[in-house]
Fold this protein.
Amino acid sequence: MAEKQPNGAGLRGQVAGKTALSTVGKSGSGLTYRGYDVKDLAENCQFEEVAHLILKGALPTEAELDAYKKKLKGLRGLPQALKEVLERIPKDAHPMDVMRTGCSVLGNLETETSFDQQQDATDRMLAAFPSIICYWYRYSHDGVRVETETDDDSIGAHFLHLLRGEKPNDLHEAVMHVSLILYAEHEFNASTFTARVCASTLSDIHSCITGAIGSLRGPLHGGANEAAMEMIENFQDPDDAEKGMLGMLERKEKIMGFGHAIYRESDPRNAIIKHWSEKLSRDVNGENLYNISVRCEEVMWREKKLFCNADFFHASAYHFMGIPTKLFTPIFVMSRLTGWAAHVFEQRADNRIIRPSAEYTGPELRKVTPIAERG
Ligand SMILES: CC(=O)SCCNC(=O)CCNC(=O)[C@H](O)C(C)(C)COP(=O)(O)OP(=O)(O)OC[C@H]1O[C@@H](n2cnc3c(N)ncnc32)[C@H](O)[C@@H]1OP(=O)(O)O
Ligand SMILES: O=C([O-])CC(=O)C(=O)O
């Protein structure tokens, strides 16, 4: 895609603060977390190591990782009052609304009363978010009250175990690690900026995260993985996908899972999740859906020079793991929580309330007409 000239719309190109957490597109297409390339992290780390890196500043030693996982495992149970709220949310609710409510209720029951508690409050949310979404999902869809205190080694395995009622295989657990690492942090994206704005008022961390979940929900941000799935599953085969995509482009429709506000040529997360999507497709005879996705990628690049962002191949990857489409974006929440919280910590450590100015475009100063004379 040609180099764009930022014109101020969407605050594009404007520096809105400092961060030591990540760089996005710094050398054209890269992504780093605290100086580590995301590819390196995805190849060599588990998600809990990356969460430790993002939240505490360094990759853990083996002893630190064991201690961190043990702590998180011990925080998977949900308070009775939260379970009762989840049981009242209907089956057809949007799972991101469930996440938002679950986070907010947790903030009522286990309020962060001092910033000294920010790390513990975040660890609690990291451990509890998979429990929240799966407790609601299994109760509303299957009538089952799941026991959320599993002994699974990782957050990803805990999620899949609760969802399916059995422990995942090694491949699925590995893909969850990769996926959660890829989604963990991304500088001043819309949901993270939401969290930082909220933090800048010195609000509590549950309010910051609840607001961020609301921002992530939209199809222009985290919701794109679900929208991409809805599109690709309607195509019969790659040729049908090509025809469908060309029609959408002709009608000037936005195609979810493509394009990016910062990256210009590629999203470095795409090649990584695409590789795992292909691997998973072979496992479940999903080659047709994978080939459809590849054709969509080719058509968008050929026609528009638009590339797949992190969301596009996540759709097929999650689908091949049997994850219901409506739970795709909540997985993003379970991961991005690390980035959001670290940004809240950073904002709090060097705070000034975020309060930009607006260019006024309304009427000139005028007098109130008495009500009887209006109309
Ligand atoms: C994890 C994430 O959140 S990644 C983002 C997930 N979101 C999506 O996949 C939604 C689809 N993509 C989009 O809507 C956009 O590409 C965004 C929101 C990601 C970025 O928005 P912007 O920075 O405003 O896009 P950008 O300035 O690069 O757009 C350039 C042109 O390409 C078009 N374009 C960008 N993305 C797409 C797309 N996915 N489908 C069709 N056209 C597109 C724009 O409409 C614009 O056209 P115009 O110049 O005629 O107005
Ligand atoms: O940075 C953005 O604008 C969106 C994105 O890719 C992310 O949040 O992961």
Summary: The radius of gyration is 22 Å. Strands lie at 22-24, 31-33, 36-37. The pocket of acetyl coenzyme *A (ligand 1) is lined by residues 4, 220-222, 224, 254-261, 306, 309-311 (CB under 6 Å). The first helix runs from residue 38 to 44.
